[in-house]
């Protein structure tokens, strides 16, 4: 065992010190970083587009609110998104929440 230990340690040291290994690791990190940037960019674009639509309309439905905040903004924020999207989200959060209109009219409960 005494013979193999220095051999194994030398082998592991040479692998860790090789530039090829570090280049491979850096390449993978760069690809992940590029994907994260793309996702963040797409999230930002969608938040801005939908948020402005809801603000212009003057209200948001419960389903739209859940999708907008929970499934779009929360993951975007986890990617350390910027402040312009946060400002839009804060405006959307202040909008009144209404039921989904049907053909431009508010839905009515059936009469008994």
Structural class: mainly alpha
Spatial strand order of the main sheet: 1-2
* Distance, first to last CA: 87 Å
Poorly predicted parts: 108-112
Instruction: Please count the helical segments.
Output: 4
Number of strands: 2
What's the main sheet like? 2 strands, antiparallel
Summarize the structure in words.
With 112 residues, this protein is mostly helical. 72% of the residues lie in helices and 4% in strands. It contains 4 helices and 2 strands; from the N terminus they run ααααββ. It has helices at residues 4-17, 19-57, 62-78, 83-93; strands at residues 101-102, 105-106. A two-stranded antiparallel sheet has the order 1-2. A hairpin with a 2-residue loop joins strand 1 (101-102) and strand 2. The radius of gyration is 26 Å and the shape is rod-shaped. The protein starts with a helix and ends in a 6-residue tail after the last strand. 10% of the residues are buried.
């Amino acid at each position: 065992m005494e013979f193999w230990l220095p051999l194994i340690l030398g082998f592991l040291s040479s692998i860790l010190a090789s530039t090829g290994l570090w280049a491979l690791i850096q390449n993978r990190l760069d690809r992940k970083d590029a994907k994260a940037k793309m996702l963040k960019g797409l999230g930002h674009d969608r938040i801005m587009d939908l948020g402005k639509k809801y603000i212009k309309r003057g209200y948001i439905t419960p389903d739209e609110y859940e999708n907008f905040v929970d499934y779009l903004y929360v993951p975007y924020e986890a990617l350390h998104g910027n402040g312009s999207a946060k400002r839009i989200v804060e405006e959307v959060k202040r909008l009144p929440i209404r039921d989904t209109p049907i053909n431009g009219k508010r839905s009515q409960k059936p009469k008994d």
